[in-house]
Amino acid sequence: MLNTFLIAIREGLEASLIVGILLAYVAKTGRRSALPSIWTGVGLALLLSLGFGAFLSFTSRELSPSGEELFAGVTSIAAVTLVTWMVFWMKKTARNISKELHSKMDQAVALGTFGLISTAFLSVAREGLETSIFLYASFKTVGTNLAPTIGLIAGLAFSVTLGILIYKRSVRLNLGKFFTYSGIALIVVASSVLHKGLLDLQSFGLVPRGLWLNWCVVLGYLILTLRPFTHSLRHKTPVSQ
Question: What is the reported pTM?
């Protein structure tokens, strides 16, 4: 439950902040006519993310036991790779994400409706696809009981509510610290997904067996990925919101 709750909060808030930045910018610049196009792009991105998650689940169920092990193992490694890259990308760009999205919106306005829909779609789809594959891998790790689903729903509800409050400036959040601490939490969750993925690949016969190998890989992953975050914690993180 905690795994899916943390994933939903982090990824849901990222998506909410992106949507909020886009909406606030078009309102501030007197381009409210662009709002329907933005919401269309956001809606299409959500549909794609849900469809991708359904595709992963359906494909997994249709495979043979050995094929499912291979699919789950490869998907887990892919999810860990993608999430790790996104965590470091957000750590690097969080303070400038508003300027980056504003620039993209200025270019999109010049392209018309299609440009606006595409910008909103691509900005949100990146988060949605990442969330889908990571949640799928996480569900495979923690099991299929009701608790992970409750954690997912609660996390999404909390992140959307917090995103709305930030957009309305009812709440101020130090985004630098948020992305630092939530990045650490995601890396810890990713390490458990990595461990499960290695076990699946070992069962399939693609990776040499041995728990010592798994724990060496997981420990190496944690050391390499957490080191930049521990360095950040020793320095004052600027307020981004």
Answer: 0.81
Residue extents of the structural domains in the chain: 2-233
Residue-wise DSSP of the chain: -HHHHHHHHHHHHHHHHHHHHHHHHHHHTT-GGGHHHHHHHHHHHHHHHHHHHHHHHHHHHHS-HHHHHHHHHHHHHHHHHHHHHHHHHHHHHGGGHHHHHHHHHHHHHHH-HHHHHHHHHHHHHHHHHHHHHHHHHHHHHH-SSHHHHHHHHHHHHHHHHHHHHHHTTSS---HHHHHHHHHHHHHHHHHHHHHHHHHHHHHHTSS---HHHHHHHHHHHHHHHHHHHHHHHTSPPPP--
pLDDT in tens, 182-220: 888 889 989 999 998 999 998 888 888 878 888 899 999
pLDDT digits (tens, 9 = 90+) for 46-82: 999 999 989 988 888 888 888 888 998 999 999 999 9
